[in-house]
Write a structure and sequence with these properties.
With 228 residues, the chain is mainly alpha-helical. The chain is 82% helix and 0% strand. It starts with a helix and ends with a helix.
Length: 228
């Protein structure tokens, strides 16, 4: 456990030294404030707060985890760590955990600067954490399976944009399509968080599906780790 903590601390220092990482962390905060303020002034009711919380999850989780893990593989850093007393699971937890913490902090800031402190924030913590884990896991799987950093960055971008864009557009689609789209983790996160912001009870089906995603992706990472 101490080794995982030390590795996580080192990862956080490296992240904070990287301008690109800092840009990814600050982008959801800046964009959410600018766009939501503009929308409120215009009286529109699309691109709601829940979507920008989701944006923080998919951007940070996928775009940091995927390329970071690929870089670690290309530089053989993971191989070197595995030669120490760290396990594959420990390395994944340390690297993914730091990204998850960054994602959670940014999500909370997005809520605070757009809605200030409210009881919603406490209720939102569970989908923030579970959703954050799911998208970090997706990024990790991309990073552990794609061979080159160029391909990995491209795939991470495509997956991130696709998962975010479908949430911004799905309400304009026929209602019957929701029966299929709800299987996507980004739809599940958005629906759960929007329900909480609207003062509704926690949506059980979407939350259950999100838990299933978390478990399936976690199992997939474990199976990939068996090769190391």
């Amino acid at each position: 456990m101490k080794s995982i903590f030390v590795l996580g601390k080192q990862e956080s220092k490296e992240m904070l030294k990287n301008p690109g990482t800092l840009a990814v962390l600050f982008l959801p905060i800046i964009m959410s404030k600018m766009i939501l303020t503009t929308i409120k002034v215009s009286g529109a009711d699309f691109l709601l707060l829940s979507i920008w919380i989701l944006f923080a999850q998919v951007l940070i989780g996928i775009m940091l985890a995927g390329p970071t893990v690929i870089e670690e593989r290309e530089t053989k850093t993971i191989d070197a760590l595995l030669c120490s007393h760290l396990t594959f699971e420990g390395i994944v937890c340390a690297k993914g955990g730091i990204i998850l913490i960054g994602s959670l902090i940014v999500q909370i800031v997005v809520v605070l600067i757009n809605e200030k402190f409210s009881i919603h924030l406490i209720s939102l913590l569970l989908p923030m954490i579970i959703g954050g884990i799911v998208f970090v896991e997706i990024g990790m799987i991309i990073g552990l399976t794609v061979k080159s950093s160029q391909s990995g960055s491209a795939l991470s971008s495509v997956v991130m944009i696709s998962l975010f864009l479908i949430v911004a557009l799905y309400q304009a689609l026929p209602k019957w399509t929701y029966n299929f789209l709800v299987l996507l983790p980004s739809i599940e996160v958005s629906e759960v968080m929007q329900g909480i912001l609207d003062g509704k009870d926690l949506i059980c089906m979407e939350m259950l599906l999100l838990f299933v995603w978390m478990l399936v992706l976690g199992f997939t990472i474990k199976k990939i780790g068996d090769r190391y």
